[in-house]
Amino acid sequence: MSINTEAAGQRRWQFPPAGRAPLTGLRVLDFSTFGPGPFATQIMADLGATVIKVEKVGGEVQRHTVPEFFRALNRGKSSLELNLKDPEDNRLCRRLAAEADVLVESFRPGAMDRLGLGAEAVAEANPALVYVSIPPFAQSGAGSGEQGHETQFNARSGAFVDPGGAMHEPPPAPFSDLGSGAFAVIGTLAALGQGDRHATRVGVPVLGAAVSFMFMRLLRELNADTTVDRPWRSEPAAGPFPTGGNGFIAFSAVDPKAWGALVELLDEPRLRAPEFADYASRQQRIPEVNALITARLAADSQERWLERFRAADIPVAPANRAQDVFEDPFVQALGILERHPAPHVRLPINGIPSVTNIHPPELDDCGAAVREHGWHALESR
To answer: Is the pTM of this model over 0.90?
Structure first.
């Protein structure tokens, strides 16, 4: 994430007084698509910002291809269909940008410049704007002109390949997309909090988020002995394991206390062998350790093992299916995941006033009013 200050300007927006949503009154103009940018602006909207989502004529692709994702990432925003190459629509965009507090875009570097909506051009009319770019790769140099999606970010960050060099399926969650969106919010808040009120350019390449989240695993594997046949699991006695029946439990017994409790609980003599006494030794024998644990867990049900692991104070959880997550009492206690009026998740943050918009806008919601009155059309919403 890079933050560069440019020409000085007087920022109109200020953090509101206590008791109001933290981003109340913040005007965010959102040109982004798919996951990273919309996730960032959804967080801002949930914290009280007013967001105008600029979509191409016919609507963003994901509105039609994966509508459930679109609804989840664009709740409570006002959408506006525009052809950015049309002179009239382009002028409207420039007018909205001139009055915005934050602009978010996720095009390849140079695309907004060619439309006359690049950071330097917009700063001339709005020298206090926080201009947030979420490109696939770096702003310049290798990859700057290429397209990218979650698959490419996972591949370049090392997420597909295990320590032994075998290839695996992609991670089950789009950590690159969502991670870059979260970093974009952090950068935006940092820029808004700058006392000098200068115009700010925030850059958050999606690949950068992927590498950041992969960093700890990369460190672990960097000096690993590649002659050892290592499975996909990079730790012994950690992760999901099958139990008797159809259920799985997921636990972590990597520290000495938890490992000792696990050995006592499973009562498997071979796990007491000297070659399993310390973590480094077990790390060299992951398949053997996990096979012994798996064989022992087959003797009883998921429910019984969960009770025993908890009683032994070993971190454990059921390996939930999607429908189980909504019913999990630990998840329900968070109070963030809901089914109605459509499945959605609230911000997992407590202690500050926030809002959660749960109704997605209709196509071109308030579009006519915004075209005529700009941001003023949304002031009463």
So the answer is: no
Residue 251, helix vs strand vs coil? strand
All structural domains of the chain with their residue ranges: 2-216+342-378, 238-327
2-216+342-378: CATH topology: Rossmann fold (3.40.50)
Please name which of 56, 45, 50, 121 lies closest in space to residue 84, comparing C-alpha atoms.
56
In whole angstroms, give the CA distance from residue 356 to residue 354.
7
Q: Which tens digits make up the pLDDT trace of 282-305? A: 988 989 999 999 999 999 999 999
Q: Are strands 198-203 and 130-133 parallel, antiparallel or unpaired?
A: parallel
Q: Rounded to whole angstroms, how far apart are CA atoms 171 and 154? A: 8
DSSP letters, 319-364, are: ---HHHHHH-HHHHHHT-EE-SSS-EE--S--SS------SPPPTT
Interval 216-258: pLDDT, tens: 878 777 766 555 555 555 689 998 999 998 899 999 998 999 9
Cβ of 181: how many Cβ atoms within 10 Å? 27
Cis peptide preceding 341, ω within 30 of 0: yes
Q: Are 78 and 28 in contact (CB under 8 A)?
A: no
Cα 40 to Cα 34: distance, rounded to the nearest angstrom = 11
**238-327 adopts what CATH topology?**
formyl-coa transferase, domain 3 (3.30.1540)
